[in-house]
Every structure is written in structure tokens, then in C-alpha cells.
């Protein structure tokens, strides 16, 4: 019984560690452009706060979010009526679990109000499938447009 309780506690702590790793990855790699609060940098990096949760209401949005962190994108894009001309680098150096954690951090920290009622966290296997497929810029733009 004692071993079972220790195993359950370790499992819960591992989930907390993954969530904390998502924040750490965001703070160290994303916040410089997208800002610590996800507000973005005018004209350079679009806001993440209040803009991504609603994308998950359609399948294309569920493809777009893993796709943008895996493939990156150099493109003009509009968000909240502002045109952005930046380059989103790919983050292929991170593991699928780290990328899932950072996406879930962004979604659950900056987009809670916009998440669909049936939201389920993005899983590492979704990132692995995206990484294997290597989405093109054309696919990313189409998924973005379809999930606005």
C-alpha cells in the first residue's frame, strides 16, 4: 500500500514537473518575442494571449499549433487587426514532450477563457506525428486561416 501511494505521488509530481517545464521553456525561449505575459511585440511577434484557445475548436487549429513550433514560419500574418512581419523559428531541438508542455502552458495560462469546453491537453505524440510529417508553410498558413 505504501509503495502504491509513493507511485501515485510520483506520478502527480511528474505531471507538475512537465507543466513547470513548459513554463521554463516558454520563459527561456518564447518570452523574449511573445513577452512574459503572451502579449506579443507589436509588428514583430503576434500575441499568444487570448488568440490561440479558440483555434482548438476546429481540427486545423489542433494541427496548426504543433506545426508552428515544429516547422516555424516566415510569413506576414495578422492578429487582432495588426500585421506582423516576423520569423517564427522552428523549435525542433526540443523534445516532443517539451513542446507539448510549452503549448499547454500557453493555452492554459494565456488562453483559458477561449479554450473549447472539450479541450484536452496537447500530447507529445501529436508533436511526434507533426514532426514526422514536416508541414509546409503552405499547410501552416491554410491551417491558420481555417482556425481563425
UniProtKB/TrEMBL annotation:
<dbReference type="InterPro" id="IPR009056">
    <property type="entry name" value="Cyt_c-like_dom"/>
</dbReference>
<keyword id="KW-0408">Iron</keyword>
<keyword id="KW-0732">Signal</keyword>
<keyword id="KW-0349">Heme</keyword>
<protein>
    <submittedName>
        <fullName>Cytochrome c</fullName>
    </submittedName>
</protein>
<dbReference type="InterPro" id="IPR036909">
    <property type="entry name" value="Cyt_c-like_dom_sf"/>
</dbReference>
<feature type="domain" description="Cytochrome c">
    <location>
        <begin position="17"/>
        <end position="110"/>
    </location>
</feature>
<dbReference type="Pfam" id="PF00034">
    <property type="entry name" value="Cytochrom_C"/>
</dbReference>
<dbReference type="InterPro" id="IPR051459">
    <property type="entry name" value="Cytochrome_c-type_DH"/>
</dbReference>
<keyword id="KW-0479">Metal-binding</keyword>
<feature type="signal peptide">
    <location>
        <begin position="1"/>
        <end position="19"/>
    </location>
</feature>
Amino acid at each position: 500500500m505504501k509503495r502504491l501511494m509513493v507511485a501515485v505521488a510520483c506520478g502527480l509530481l511528474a505531471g507538475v514537473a512537465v507543466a513547470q517545464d513548459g513554463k521554463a521553456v516558454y520563459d527561456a525561449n518564447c518570452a523574449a518575442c511573445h513577452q512574459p505575459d503572451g502579449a506579443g511585440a507589436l509588428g514583430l511577434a503576434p500575441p499568444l494571449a487570448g488568440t490561440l484557445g479558440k483555434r482548438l475548436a476546429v481540427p486545423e487549429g489542433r494541427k496548426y499549433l504543433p506545426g508552428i513550433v515544429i516547422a516555424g514560419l516566415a510569413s506576414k500574418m495578422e492578429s487582432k487587426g495588426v500585421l506582423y512581419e516576423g520569423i517564427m523559428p522552428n523549435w525542433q531541438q526540443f523534445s516532443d514532450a517539451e513542446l507539448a508542455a510549452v503549448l499547454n502552458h500557453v493555452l492554459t495560462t494565456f488562453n483559458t477563457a477561449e479554450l473549447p469546453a472539450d479541450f484536452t491537453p496537447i500530447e507529445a505524440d501529436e508533436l511526434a506525428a507533426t514532426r514526422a510529417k514536416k508541414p509546409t508553410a503552405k499547410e501552416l498558413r491554410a491551417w491558420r486561416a481555417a482556425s481563425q
